[in-house]
Amino acid sequence: MTLRHCVAVDLGASSGRVMLARYDTGQHTLSLHEIHRFVNCLQKQDGFDTWDIDGLEAEIRTGLNKVCEQGILIDSIGIDTWGVDYVLLNRDGQRLGLPVSYRDSRTDGVMARAIEQLGKAQIYRRSGIQFLPFNTLYQLRALVEQQPEIAAEAAHALLIPDYFSYRLTGKMNWEYTNATTTQLVNIQTDNWDEDLLNWTGASPKWFGTPTHPGNVIGHWICPLGNKIPVVAVASHDTASAVIASPLANKDAAYLSSGTWSLMGFESTTPYTSEYALAANITNEGGAEGRYRVLKNIMGLWLLQRVIKEQNITDLPALIAETEQLSACRFLINPNEDRFINPDNMSAEIQAACRETSQPVPQRPAELARCIFDSLALLYADILHELAHLRGKPFSQLHVVGGGCQNHLLNQLCADACGVTVVAGPIEASTLGNIGVQLMTLEELGTVDDFRQVVTDNYGLTTFTPHPENEIARYVAQFQQKRLTKELCA
Length: 489
What we know:
The chain is of the alpha+beta class. 38% of the residues lie in helices and 20% in strands. It has a seven-stranded mixed beta sheet, sandwiched between helices. A six-stranded mixed beta sheet has the order 3-2-1-6-10-9. A hairpin with a 5-residue loop joins β13 and β14. α4 (136-146) runs parallel beside α8 (194-200) and α11 packs antiparallel against α14 (364-390). The longest helix is centred in the last third of the chain and has 27 residues, at 364-390. The radius of gyration is 22 Å and the shape is globular.
């Protein structure tokens, strides 16, 4: 028996964790152990919403040191985070300012100008990436226009996980799965698109060639003096989550449910048709040359904000109260830009209901019911779009990530979508991170091998659709309509 010890640093937009994985190479058992968990939140700096990048680095190092203090010999380390945001470095490799968050308003109107000047079809043909106002393509243009003094000093731009790997190893890397989220990678070449980069005004010299997951970037010297490989995993957290999704077959879709919800399916070829463009489908990079054909959904960000604003401390009690309320009394479109980062999420949801002449949710449970029902309807809408795109319906939907613990939302999703929902694992992004490390260490051969390990080691919960439930009946009334877009526009 040989034990492998891999450490996953998994950063989300609201929290981070350092997790230790133990893999028994003989028994193929895999266990996760939380070593260190910490909060991640925005801070105002010079008028921008920024990330406390130094604080996050300190927390990462604290977690890694805790592992070493236990006398554990770490075999490898991998880092995954959210996408699109980046850190600028000068010629000496020193950080320039703080990374601005994708939730900052500096990109307001920039995407519209890009579409006007470059053409929407042209941008999509080159990148295959969905149009979101905070994509790096628009962030860089905003940087050059609004902070020219910083842009003038910049020599390198590293996406967030690549920056932390650089801080641990002193080596720069541009990992492919995360790079594709920028809308700056050419879908034909898997390299940076010169025309799109030129439009931003940023220098192409800031970027090195993207590398696919599975290479060793460099080594971190632990306090005991050991040289530990830092692996370029699928460093976009959704890419890692998909790797750990135990997809039953080619007709299974996935939903990575957390602060963001991302619904899609795997494909060996991208989908860039006119329909895909009209539906704003994205083709993000995945492991083993597979594309993540998916769509972003605002997700549980709305609930997180409401919980904070309403001072909710008992989430299970809130969900239990929510479950007793009638379905579909209050509906919004969670993907509206107004919900990206409003001053007050509760008030924004209430305003959206008021503007569409609906009852206005007042109590926390009513706000939660509005969010859950609206998400479930949007899930059904997008699953329909994805099925139409590939010309074949889905047989199952696998929900992974922290949101898969919400049994009410899982059941609403099954009822609205009319397919079986399989929930789990919870720590999908962490597990996917570990999976690539184990493949790099040559303990596993393929993503499918790792998915079997996940299935064997982590319990999954099945939710069967109930056509008699309120939300299913609501969907049935509008089978041929674009549910959320038409009813909640």
